[in-house]
Design a protein that fits this description.
Number of strands: 25
CATH architecture: Beta Barrel
Structural class: alpha+beta
Helix content: 10-25%
Strand order of the largest sheet: 19-20-21-24-23-22
CATH topology: Thrombin, subunit H
Number of helices: 8
Strand content: 25-35%
Number of domains: 1
Shape: globular
Length: 414
Amino acid sequence: MRVRRAVQGGVIAAAILALGLATTSPVHAEQATSGPRADQASLLAAMQRDLGLSPAEVKRLIAKQAGVAQLDSRLSTALGEDYAGSWFDAKAGTLVVAVSAADRAGTVTAAGAEARVVGRSMRTLEAIKAELDSTTTAERRVTTTPVQADPALREQLANAVSWGVDAQSNQVVINVRQGYRADLAATLAQYGDAVRIEETDAVATQASDYLDGGDPYNGCSVGFNVTYSGSGHFLTAGHCGNVGDVAVQGGVRIGPFVESWYPEYDDALVRNDNTGYWEQGPWVFAYTGDPNAVYNINGSKDSPIGTAVCKSGTTTQVTCGYVRARDVTVNYDNGDVVKGLVQHSACAEPGDSGGSSYSSSGGSNYAEGVTSGYTHRTGDNRCLEKIAGAGESISYYYPIAASIAYYGFSLMTA
């Protein structure tokens, strides 16, 4: 049987991209001499590099993150309308849960989390965000009653980069291009300090690229290997291809896009029709120079703000950061709007689209989502952290929890 080619962990090994960025080339299946080899050590090294932590601090962080997502989910259910969001305090190793009713704080502390009493519930903030979201195309996956959008708000949000709920400030935060804050603030004055508007000179762009005669597939990156409708598929970004398009890597056919949702959502499933050539498994390519070095995926999570995550993609390879916001709506620079994204600070650039984002906790790795895009200075396609003085990166992934809920696929796990 052929040894697995470079679709390792759902991420295709690197190629020469249209932007001229050279990366490590993959070894083809017929050239490989051994099977996948888990390389957790290189993931720890990437986290040390990008998070500015020592080896001991990374190990402590991974241990502290174990069980945080599950605890957050349980408390969200238990608190109901009084739940106001959460975030993970990486330094303290504590999940902080906001509540809008002081008498519910005991429920949080009894469960082992830290309670923070705030003035607005998550449902209140989400209702405001829903009004902002109503200015874009109506939902397609579920049957909903369309909300009539304010025409003035629709026009003003065309100049916004993103918006979403910030649990830590207990506000809805809108990032708008410079010079457009005043008009938007007047339109949304009814919400008072529940809405915070910040100006930015950055724009959001999907992290896709053109295929230039080599890896990865079609100018994007594979996300995670899954089983869907009884056969092997991989999860990737919806903007990487339409239904019926064919994914190809290195001149070798993989298979067609059988589902693709974009904009509003940004995920897609590609069927592996060439199983004699492409072997799939619970792998994410480690980009260490060893063509068989992978990160094993042990399951999936939907982790809270503050969780350390890493991403693999063909351009920037393995980079790490922290979850900064959830359920973010992003207005990409081509006018396409995607909702429900997770914002994080791992670097992503063109070609990384569709690649895998994952977290580590308790000695295991968990799928979190697939890369959708990133923000960058106008006229410069590099991620923000590579520009002197620009601060940390701003990237986005579409959460795998939403993809699993819709498609019902089974993630390939170790």
